[in-house]
Amino acid sequence: MKKWISNIGPGTLVTAAFIGPGTVTVCTLAGVKFGYTLLWALGLSVIACIVLQEMAARLGIVTQSGLSEVLKSQFENKIIRSILIAIIISAIFIGNAAYEAGNISGGVLGLSTLLGSPYITFGDITINYLSLVIGVFAFILLYIGNYKVLERSLIVLVLCMSIAFVVTAIITKPDLSLVFRGFVPSFESEKLFTIIGLIGTTVVPYNLFLHASLIKEKWSSPDQLPLARKDTIVAIVVGGVMSMAIIIAGAAIQSVEVNSAADLAKSLEPVFGSAAKYVLSLGLFAAGITSAITAPLAAAYVVKGCMGWKEGLKSRKFRLVWMFILLLGVVFSSLRIKSIEIIQFAQVANGLLLPVIAGFLLWVMNSKKVLGQYTNSKTQNLIGAFIVMVTVFLGLRSVWKVLIEL
Predict the structure, then answer these.
(1) How many percent of the chain have pLDDT more than 70?
(2) Mean pLDDT of the chain
(3) Alpha carbon distance 152, 274 (integer Å)
(4) Which of 114, 288, 369, 404 sits a CA distance of 20 to 30 A from 326?
(5) Residue 297 backbone dihedrals phi, psi, to 5 degrees
(6) For residues 276 and 283, is the Cβ–Cβ distance under 8 A?
(7) Strand 119-122 with 125-128, pairing
(8) What is the average pLDDT across 261-283?
(9) Helix/strand/coil (H, E, C) string of 235-253?
(10) Residue 143 and residue 300: Cα distance in Å, rounded?
(11) Which residue has the higher pLDDT, 362 or 116?
């Protein structure tokens, strides 16, 4: 057991990042609205996540550098390099700010069920104090700057949530024939944004940067690639099984509209009964905290790589970046917008951002100059190209749908 625990690495942080309030919310909504019919989209997302995160992990171990650092080094022309850095930083800042707002909103969604309305009024100003509470909690954990403390804390929270939802899915006794039929792809227009949301909540673009940066904290030699691959695959499969369990549990909800944690908690009633809303509330809070830590951390690593900073987790510049993302998340989540809507928007934004970041990763993974003998195989390139094409197709379809409806 001790050896097994010692070999757990950054893959757990990747899972902790995508198993956030967004996953709980989007997967529950997918189950409520479409039953088991979108399990195929989640299955595709898990495969895509494994393939892309393995590339990011391999890049980090072989080069001992982050993705943004490697990408920057590929361009000698200063103008092109500056444009690339601007695109990466802008994309990650926008995506992470939206994602952070969704994470904190998810935590608020959970706590407000236990503590009542999150709003307090001072004269003409109304403040969401629970957003501030969660922001301060995340700030403290990030400020400690200890990778092992973060890693171990998130392992426990992710395992607890996984067990709760998997047990729930089993107890609801789903029709297995319908479950298996749910893995047959279908692209009906009314499912489009939910499909993109499922992809966006599983294959989180900033995780590619985070994984490549953190992997060298654990492993330093290409000889250790098998351990890194095992860590990545096991962690993501556990997260994928949990996400599928949430869809299956959500399909058992006899409701058409989900607006609060109490509505989401109906998926847990077969196991926890009247205590379901309290269990889910604590789960959403835990999921919100885990993801609220990883989003600012990833943004800081991206900026660090792009700007060529040598300092680590506890440097002033590094901390200022994650503080800024955390502040944006707190501010946006404090606005009087439904938490569920903020969370859904964040997942769709991630889904639209994915093909840009995945395309960059796929390109650099074929550079012999960077990776030598560890470049992508033909199979990995085919799968990677397929993932990029599918996400581009879905993104263009969603944009077209929005334009038609204007």
Answers:
(1) 82
(2) 79
(3) 31
(4) 114
(5) -60, -45
(6) no
(7) antiparallel
(8) 70
(9) HHHHHHHHHHHHHHHHHCC
(10) 13
(11) 362
Q: Is the pLDDT of residue 125 over 80?
A: no
Q: Which stretch of DSSP H or E encloses residue 73? A: helix 67-73
Name which of 207, 285, 301 is nearest 15 in CA terms.
207
* Helix/strand/coil (H/E/C) assignment for every residue in 250-284: HHCCCCCCCCCHHHHHHHHHHHHHHHHHHHHHHHH
Q: At what angle do helices 339-364 and 205-218 cross, to 10 degrees?
A: 60
Instruction: Indicate if the pLDDT at residue 195 is higher than 80.
Output: yes
Distance CA 72, CA 36 (A): 42
pLDDT tens readout for residues 210-228: 888 888 777 888 888 888 8
Tell me which residue has tokens 């969660």. Answer: 134
- The rounded distance, in Å, linking the Cα atoms of 280 and 42 is 21
**DSSP string computed for 297-339:** HHHHHHHHHHHT----TTSHHHHHHHHHHHHHHHHHHHSSS-H
225-251 vs 21-34: helix crossing angle, rounded to 10: 40
Q: Which of 101-110, 264-273, 383-392 has the highest mean pLDDT?
A: 383-392
User: What contacts 362, CB < 8 A, 6 or more positions away?
Assistant: 55, 376, 381, 384, 385, 388
CA distance 378 to 154: 35
Which residues, 6 or more positions from 396, have their beta carbon under 8 angstroms from its beta carbon?
none
